[in-house]
Each structure stands twice: as C-alpha cells, then as structure tokens.
Amino acid sequence: MGFFQKIIDGLKKTKERIGFKLNEIFKRGIFDEDFYEELEFILLSADVGEETAEDIIDQLRERMRQDRVADAKRANQYLREVLCEILGDEKFEIQTPCVITVAGVNGVGKTTTIGKLANIFVKQGKSVVIAAADTFRAAAGEQLEVWAKRAGVRIIKHEEGSDPAAVVFDAVSSAKSKGTDIVLVDTAGRLHNKKNLMEELKKIDRVIEREHPTATRKNLIVLDATTGQNAIAQVEVFDEAIDIDGIVLTKLDGTAKGGVVLAIKHDMDIPVYFVGVGEGIDDLLYFDPQSYVEGII
Amino acid sequence: MAAFSNLTDRINHIFSKLKNRGALSELEIKQAMREVRVALLEADVNYTVAKDFINKVTELAVGEKILKSLTPGQQVIKIVNEQLIELLGSTQSKLGVSPKLPTIIMMCGLQGAGKTTMCGKLAYHLQKQGKKVLLVADDVYRPAAIKQLEVVANKVKCGFFGMGQGNPVKIAKSGVEHATKNGYDTVIIDTAGRLHINEELMAELKSIKKAVDVFETLLVVDSMLGQDAVNVAKTFDEALDITGVIMTKLDGDTRGGSTLSIKAVTGKPIKFCGTGEKPEDLEIFYPDRMASRILGMGDVLTLIEKAQTAIDEEEALKMAKKLQNSTFDLEDYLKQFEQISKMGDLNDIVGMIPGASRLKLGDKKVDEKQIARNKAIIQSMTPEERKNPKILNYSRRKRIAAGCGLQVQDVNRLIKQYEQTCDMMKKMSKSKRLPF
Ligand SMILES: Nc1nc2c(ncn2[C@@H]2O[C@H](COP(=O)(O)OP(=O)(O)O)[C@@H](O)[C@H]2O)c(=O)[nH]1
Ligand SMILES: [Mg+2]
C-alpha cells in the first residue's frame, strides 16, 4: 500500500458517495459544453470556488484546442497537469533550530496537528518542545499535554488565562538553553476578524523573533477541509498578521475535499505542506499534489 | 466585475442597460440569475441547492410586475430575498420541553464544530429561563474533552456529570439517572465529534439516542462549512432524525451559505446561532439576517461588524455589565473615549444600527478635539475621583481644570455629559442586541 493510499482512500469515499461522474464524462469522449459544465460542477463541488474553477477550465480548453487529436485519455491527463501546476511542488523543509507556529480559526485541528507534527519530527530523530500558547480555551493545555505524552516530547505550559506570549518566551528560552531542535507553538483558535486576537498573535510572533533570532521560522495555518470559501479570507488575514508560509489541510478523511487550497495557491501562492487524515498520531502526511489531485477528480 | 462588489450593484448594472420597465422578462431574469448564482456559490451554498433555488425563483419572477418604487434589479433582489427567507424558515424555533422530565438534549456533529462550547451556551440560556441543567460528558475520545466540559459547566454554574473514558451509552444512562435523582429538569449530552461516514460512531449515537429517550437531537454545524455541508447534514439527519440545527462561529465573516444547504436537504429548523466564545454568545436564528448575509447585501451588517471589531469586545461586555450594576465610573468613561477615537465616526455607525436612531444621542456631533479634551480632564483626576465622581467638589474641580489647562466649566460639562451618558447607555443596553 502506497504512502498516500490513506488520503486516496479517504477521498475515494467522496467519489463514491456523490455519484462521481468525472470518469464517465471523460469516457464519453465528447468535449462539448456539457462536458465543461460537468467539470465545473465537479470542481465547484470540491470547494475550488467559481473563479479558480473557471480558470482551470479555461486552461484545459486552451490545451485541448492546441492538441487537435485530444481524446479522453489526453483530456484527463491535461486536467491533472493543470491542477498539479497550480498546486506546485514545494516541499516542507526546515533547518534546525526552528520555531513552528501553528495558527488558525477555532476547531480546525491545530492542537491535534501539533501532536502529529511532534511525532513526525521525533521519528526523524529531532528534539522537540511544545509551547502550550492556547491559554484561552478551557482545557486546551490538558489536551496538548496528552499529545505531548503520546509523541514523547517536552511541553511548556502555564495556567489557563495566562499570557500566551509568556509561554512562548519560556519555551523558546528552554529550547535555546537545552539546544532543542524544534519548538512547536500551539495557539488559541481565533476568528480572523477579531482584531485584538490577531494582535496577540503578532505579539507571539515578535517574541519568537526577538528571543530566538538564530532560529529559522515556519508559520503554518491549519485549514479544515470542510471549510468553504471563507478559508481564503482566513489565510489572507493570518498572512497579514504573521506571514504564513504554508497550509496544513485537516480532516481529509471525511467527504470534503478542501479544494479551496487550489484557489489559495492560485491567488496567494501559499502552498499546502501537510494533510490530516484522521485523529490518530500517524494521521498526518506530507502533502503530495499528485495524490491529492487523484483524490479530488 | 470586481467593481460591483455586491449583488445589488451587479444586478442593477445588468438592468441599467435595459429599458423595459413593465414586467420582468425571462431573458432579464436569466441574466440576473447568473449573478445570483455567483453570489450563492461565493457564499458556499451547495451547487445543486443553488441550482434548484434559482430555477424556483426564475419561475416565480417571470412576468412579475415591477413595482413603481423599485428598479427591475431591486425587484429581482426582492423576490430572491423573500424566497431565501422563506426557505431558511420563516419562524423562529425554540427548544422543546419533554412531557416526561428531564428533557434530554443530545448534541452531535463533526469534529471541531463547536459542540462543547455550545453546551455551555445552551445551559446558560436555559438556566436564565429557570431550568436546572446538567451537562453530561460523553466525548470519551478527544483528549481533555471531558475536562473542557467540566470547566464550561463550572463557568456557567450548571451541573456536570462525567465518568471518564467509559462506554458512551452507559455514561449517558448514568447521567440521566443522576439528573433524575438530583432534580435536574434538563440534560445536555455532549458527544464526540465524528465523521458522518464513520458508521461505527454513527451507530453509537443511535444507541445513545435510543437508550436515554433523547427529546432534542441537535446537529451543531460550523457556519464556515463549504459544499460538503449537504452530505454531512443529510447523513446525520438520516441516521438520527435530528430535531434542529445550530450554526456556530457566525461572529466570523463567513457568508454562511451552508445554512441554506442544510435547511434545504434536511428541512429541519435552525434553532440558534453561536456568535462568540462566551456563554452569552448565543442568538436566536433570524432568517432575514441570514438571507442578506448570504446574498452579501449586509451593508448595514458590515458596518456593524466594523464597529464590533473596533470596540474591544471584552471591554464592551464589561461596560455593559457595569452599566447594569451602575458601577460605570469615569475610568470607564475614559476608556470609552479611547474606543471612540479608534472607531472613527460614531455618528455614522450608530445611525446604521437599526433602531439606534431612536435613541437620543444629542445633536452634537462627535468631535475629536472635544474627545481629546475630555480625555485630558479625566486623566487629571486621581484614581479615587475617577472611581467615585460624587466626591468631585468645587475645589477638586478647580485643581483638575488647572491640571489639564482648561476651565472649571469644561470640567463641569464633562461631568454632566458623563451623567447623561450613563442614562443613555442604560437605555441602550435595555434595547435589542446588535445582530450577529
Ligand atoms: N477526522 C479528523 N478529525 C480531526 C483531524 N484533525 C483534527 N481532528 C479533530 O478535530 C477536533 C478539533 O481538533 P483540535 O486539535 O482540538 O482543534 P483546534 O481547536 O484547532 O486546536 C478534534 O476532535 C480532533 O480530533 C483530521 O485530520 N481528521
Ligand atoms: Mg487547540
């Protein structure tokens, strides 16, 4: 079973359930308006969004026009190409020491992702400390503690309601003195239109920059695959606050496909680095555009 | 197209090219519907739901007379809006009370929808209606979920029942027994988030429902949900025959089209909206507000949202509480001035809040210089004076005036204004809350 089988399996469920038609429309071999309309339906149903879907279709039309003998197989291949080109192939790579901040709106899977990331890095032989900077949500610290234990890493935690920047300060100081490779910062979920909460996030970002200037940085936003077009606004605003490097797309084990990441890459050039495919500690995978495209069409 | 950011503009633009002022023709409507479709899809209304909706509206709109007072574009929007409101549910729906107490409410939904937080809000809401509420911790899977519910229960001061990581059906049963023994009339069961396609976990919900005679099965849905909302809602409804839906996180800027999708596929009423993280952030569902939000016509709403983000929400809440307890002092008044300077033109914003114009704000415009002066006056007071304005006798007022380089009359005016503000805000806090 291939490494990406899990995500393909997850996405296949979607195919079966919504009466997946793409293969059929390709098989028909007639590339008329009906064909493009069906394709539009498929893309929109995956939350790709109107504008990006239109652009994808235009690009496909163009390739089909240039290739006069376009048959079903070629059309299929062109579509995959267009989608993969949009997604790009930037890999997630870090140089230690590194501080990774994980941000996003409420309930998308930030804390779970931190646990899974810690697990990945530990397996790569790196040392990790987690900063429990969600001091706001009830029992968020306890939840993260469970994950730290599962992954076998240290955690720095203050009491509920304390200043998140102070937690980050402590974690970063501890990482510096102990020579820890990676600091993972869990943050409180916040809706991006709450100004004061975005300020708090900026403060965390500044503390890291100031206290650990030699560390490399990655700021990740977690997006829930079930989210629709609002994900675009989420990335825009978080990016404005703390310069987002990449996306973790969670909950791909459901029937949603998170196609909005195509729109985000297309418009903002922010890549997907990881995908979440379940609630277990191993259910986080490096993003692979081919497998993903396989899953959504 | 980007120039026409909202639907009304876009549709008006189409109709501006047409001279016909009698009845709506099919061609015109078709063109307008293309824009409506874009608006619906941008708002995350499900593709198929949007298509059905548009067909229905087109049918209704063809041949419709254009009212004298409206442009053809406005006429189309009016029909679209009316239909949307009707589909979303024209009546507000409350929670039912079981003839056989306790009334058992089961919360269910996907992971991260906001069930646990919502449990606290419902408890808070029901307690205010005089109910005695017990929260039962039945999410045995997510780390620290039980602890989270316990914290929530303590915060809203309702009952809590948990048995740790046991069998969810047994826990639910024991929870209800505990409620009966201890005189609780309402039980809210918090269940683990689960994927609708996880058959094993869906079966578990069915067993709970059967075992404890659930009266209200509420599906909690993140309002930011996209196209998949139909699959989720349909599957949950088919498995559990839900009695209602709660949309969460509506304090964000999502257009919330999933609301329409869910209503369309389940036909079940949307009972509440979650609009924040605090227990009191629960609102009744208003179909008309949701309709304008989905259509992106929330000009008024946008402005209110703007006002809301500018006002530090925690501060605003504290102020409201202080006003109710009559502990709003000059220190708070100073904070208010700071907020106002951040927000820009208060007159405009207040003017856009429906109903707010009735409140007498006085005919004085908010004047920035005046605000700066007022701030200086309060800043020249001692903490004790700020806390207790009653002690401000003449000699104190003279000292303050000297301290900020103003006249005693200026100080007097500020204190008078402060007293009027207290009165006005008391009235305002009694009137309706802001939408969303
Ligand atoms: N099915 C599924 N559930 C997930 C995934 N990632 C997180 N979750 C669940 O989503 C819920 C919210 O996750 P949490 O990490 O607490 O979100 P946070 O509020 O962003 O920190 C929890 O119930 C998680 O178990 C995923 O990839 N798939
Ligand atoms: Mg969290």
Describe the 3D structure.
The complex is a heterodimer of chains A (297) and B (436). With 297 residues, chain A is α/β, with parallel strands linked by helices. In chain A, 52% of the residues lie in helices and 14% in strands. Chain A is built from 12 helices and 8 strands. In chain A, helix 2 (22-28) crosses helix 5 (72-87), helix 3 packs antiparallel against helix 4 (50-66) and helix 8 runs parallel beside helix 9 (195-211). Chain A is elongated and about 65 Å long. Chain A starts with a helix and ends with a helix. In chain A, 52% of the residues are buried. Helix content of chain B is 55%, strand content 9%. Chain B has helices at 7-16, 26-42, 47-61, 72-88, 115-128, 145-156, 168-181, 199-212, 229-240, 258-266, 287-294, 299-310, 313-324, 330-343, 346-352, 368-379, 383-387, 394-404, 408-430; strands spanning 103-108, 133-138, 159-161, 186-191, 216-222, 244-248, 270-274, 282-284. In chain B, strands 3-2-4-1-5-6-7-8 form an 8-stranded mixed beta sheet, with helices on both faces. The model of chain B is unreliable at 299-308, 347-365 and 431-436 (pLDDT under 50). In chain B, helix 5 packs parallel to helix 6 and helix 18 packs across helix 19 (408-430). The relative contact order of chain B is 0.10. In chain B, helix 10 links the parallel strand 6 and strand 7. With 436 residues, chain B is of the alpha/beta class. Chain B is built from 19 helices and 8 strands. Chains A and B meet through helix 3, helix 7 and helix 10 of A and helix 2, helix 6, helix 9 and helix 12 of B. The complex binds guanosine-5'-diphosphate and magnesium ion. Guanosine-5'-diphosphate sits between chains A (104, 106-112, 189, 222, 250-251, 253, 276-279, 283) and B (111-112, 142, 193, 195).
